[in-house]
Amino acid sequence: MRLVRRTRPRLVAAVAGVACLAGGWATGVRAQTVKDAIATSEGANKEAEASQKKIDKISDDIDSLAAEYRAAIQEIKALEGYNKQLEGLIVSQGQEMESLRHQIDNVTVVGRQVMPLMSRMLDALAQFVELDVPFLPEERAERIAKLREMMDRADVTISEKYRRILEAYQIENEYGRTIEAYRGPVEADGKEITVDFLRIGRLALLYQTLDGSESGMWDAAAGTWVPLGNEYRNAIQAGLRMARKQSAPDLITVPVPAPKSAEVQG
User: Would you kindly state where each structural domain of the chain is located, as residue ranges?
Assistant: First the structure.
């Protein structure tokens, strides 16, 4: 009986010690579980944040690709419109090329027709100058000589030759509507003297010596120069000043050859 009494307290003490150890272990387990839960939560948050960043990047990439796609669609539409314009331009250029081929084929024919015409025009101009009032004889003869020389040049186009001949005709036409003063030689009494010429259109060609002592006019009917009296001296001097723009235009009295009657050929 004494043996039982002695061993019971020790057994109780052992059970109490085991209980204390179990309580401490349980507390440690709960603390570790909380830490693991926090760590797991933090890891999940980081993974969620990383996933969100990936999602944002993918969204940005999709927006960028969509913008590029829209831009590509717009460019394709613009290119389609441009291609249509090019198609019309190509058709027009093809028609123009065909027209040019046709013109090139006809160049020889046109040349054969125009060249004789220009030669006749030049001959008629030379004859007109020869029969006209003899003003600026050297200048006008030189112009015709240059035109004849130009007609034999292969480096001058037919259009340019035609233009130059028409230009010469225009110059001759302007002579009939202008007044002009120039200096040159004239033969009088068998000698050549330098005088001032006054041309009034093609109506009158007058001259006066440099000292103003002698005056004369061209007589188309006689084909020679005839002297004038002193009554025309001041009028000719006034005309020379007007032609040189040294005085204002004014009326002057000068001799004008009587017009010849025209002969009508039936």
Answer: 41-87, 106-175, 179-256
